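Quick one:
INPUT:
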């Protein structure tokens, strides 16, 4: 539990730090991550092969496998996310009450998001990018079959955050396989996590 609490504390601190980061810097992180995926393609494929060799549930192999085409697919997604306009602080709707009171609905960040997902490594990259783009921090708990693939994808993202002087704990990956982790994420982390997406 202490392991998870440390992750939670780090995420809350990273979220506070992220509030003052300029959107241009966030876009640069995503573009740098895209280049890093290409540069480290062979390393990603090597880590992915470790997962594929160790998989016990054979029906998971197809969604788990990474190859050149799938890495290009991930890079395409990151590129598209980078091009989105800043979603934070946009006026979605405004109206005036009969008493002249003006009301606006404005988009804002959520905070710290916990993501629990199956053995699809692309989710690690996509969710990290979407969370950062929308001004949020993320705690990732991927399927145990994809541990090595997810870890390398998350670590490459964290490297780019650090290089751009953003708190790398904006993205954290849980690298423990215990099922208790999921139970604790769902039941004991409300102090740190604002939303969990299973």
């Amino acid at each position: 539990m202490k392991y998870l609490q440390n992750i939670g504390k780090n995420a809350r601190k990273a979220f506070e730090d992220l509030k003052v980061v300029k959107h241009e810097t966030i876009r640069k992180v995503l573009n740098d991550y895209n280049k890093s995926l290409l540069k480290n393609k062979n390393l990603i494929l090597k880590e992915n092969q470790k997962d594929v060799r160790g998989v016990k549930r054979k029906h998971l192999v197809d969604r788990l496998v990474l190859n050149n085409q799938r890495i290009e697919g991930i890079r395409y997604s990151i590129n598209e996310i980078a091009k989105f306009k800043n979603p934070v602080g946009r006026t979605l709707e405004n109206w005036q009450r009969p008493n002249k009171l003006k009301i606006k609905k404005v988009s804002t960040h959520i905070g710290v998001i916990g993501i629990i997902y199956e053995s699809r490594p692309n989710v690690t990259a996509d969710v990290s990018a979407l969370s950062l783009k929308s001004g949020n921090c993320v705690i990732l708990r991927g399927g145990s079959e994809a541990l090595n693939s997810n870890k390398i994808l998350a670590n490459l993202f964290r490297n780019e955050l650090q290089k751009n002087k953003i708190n790398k704990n904006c993205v954290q990956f849980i690298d423990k396989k215990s099922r208790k982790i999921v139970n604790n994420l769902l039941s004991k982390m409300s102090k740190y996590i604002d939303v969990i997406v299973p």
